[in-house]
Amino acid sequence: MEEDNDVSDNHVIRERFEKLALIKQNGIAYKNHFRPKYTISQIIKLCENLLHEELDSKEILVTVAGRIMLKRLMGKASFATIQDFGGRIQIYINENSVGHDLYGDFKTWDLGDICYVEGRMFSTRTGELTINVTKLELVSKCLCPLPDKFHGLADQEICYRQRYLDLIVNEETREVFLKRSKAISSMRNVLQANNFLEVETPMMHVIPGGAAARPFVTYHNALNRDLFLRVAPELYLKRLLVGGLDRVFEINRNFRNEGISPRHNPEFTMMEMYAVYTDYVWMMDFTEKLIRQVTMDVLGTAVFTYQGRELDISRRFQRISMLDAIKEYTSFTDEQLSDSRFLLAQLELLGVKEDVLDGQKSLSAIHVTLFENVAESKLFQPTYIVNYPTEISPLSRSSDVNDNVAERFELFIAGRELANGFSELNDPEDQAERFQQQVIRKNAGNEEAMYYDADYVHALEYGMPPAGGCGIGVDRLVMLLTNTSSIRDVIFFPHLKG
Q1: Would you say the pTM of this structure is higher than 0.85?
Q2: Could you give the 3-state DSSP secondary structure of residue 346?
């Protein structure tokens, strides 16, 4: 059956190439003088509240371009439906209006062809908004057949690999990326309204830093040295705080040489923000307000359904410690949570291998791994996890009460991490010691441990004001707002295996 489809498609493609060759014989095939004054959504908005009689009396003339998605040929008059990114509209082509030759040409046009239309708006007897065409031109020839209109494009692999085709035939996909754009615009507006300055920092780093992640390596010919694609912009953004910028943010593309999964793509979008004379508590409050406002701007409500469950962004986000979260979803006692040997045995029962700990068997490292395996996936409603170990937070300020606890939070929604923030470490000597500990771990085989960044330490020696910072995963936020379960659904061109 598959072979029959291939033969049929090849036949259709050959016919379309023959049509294109004929067009080229008679003139220019791909002209570029078209300047439509409207989009389809603008036309619908202009006419949607007008009655049939009002449309006739107003003589609304429009020019628009779109892709032919449906055709109904009926002798000397035909209907078609054209589509642009904002919607679809019906057009009516009458031989008497456009002429015998042009009407004959139109009848040979194929689904997927892009055309330019001029005409007057009217409403059919069934009430459908329609353009009565007076001028019609072929803009671009579609040489490959579109998927069957009744079955659409259901193969997810093709949707990811040929996103252009997915966007043509699936309205749901277009809606996802419209919401993504709205979310990023909303985020930018909220930050700028709160005096954050948008900045740009390097994407190629001499030393990768700002996150515990394995970097991609590239080579610069002129400099004769390796460079790293950035894993995070954090250390450069905090250099700007040293330089006197009070509030900065960057909507940035990051690259991490890690596995591919429904939650992970090797390149992804983050928004990182930093504000002087704030701390992690202030940053939790602000992050919550930011996410709530973005949700309202995109969805019009802060209470919505995600993957079949109601998600409420309108209420104050819960805040609990990592150990309390572990205890909430297990029966472990305080005594057991202090017993490394016992917890390692429990992790083994959960199927967690020792190499997951990257050679770190400290109680703090074990607690983090335990949290990730017994509690993280259960945090559906917005929840801040606080009281992270300083040991695993090399860029975070320690608590004044307990040096072993960092002033840090991670935000979890729908069972996955959405944001990470903390009071920034601005003591250069402490930061140097933290980097040294990271180097020891890297030398011991932990590929995600950080490098020692001497220039960043030197920048801190000039004095950085106390500050709070936070990074929000833009892709994961868009997943929530579009009710999608895979990060591939919210990235135009995700990386795929094979």
Answers
A1: yes
A2: helix
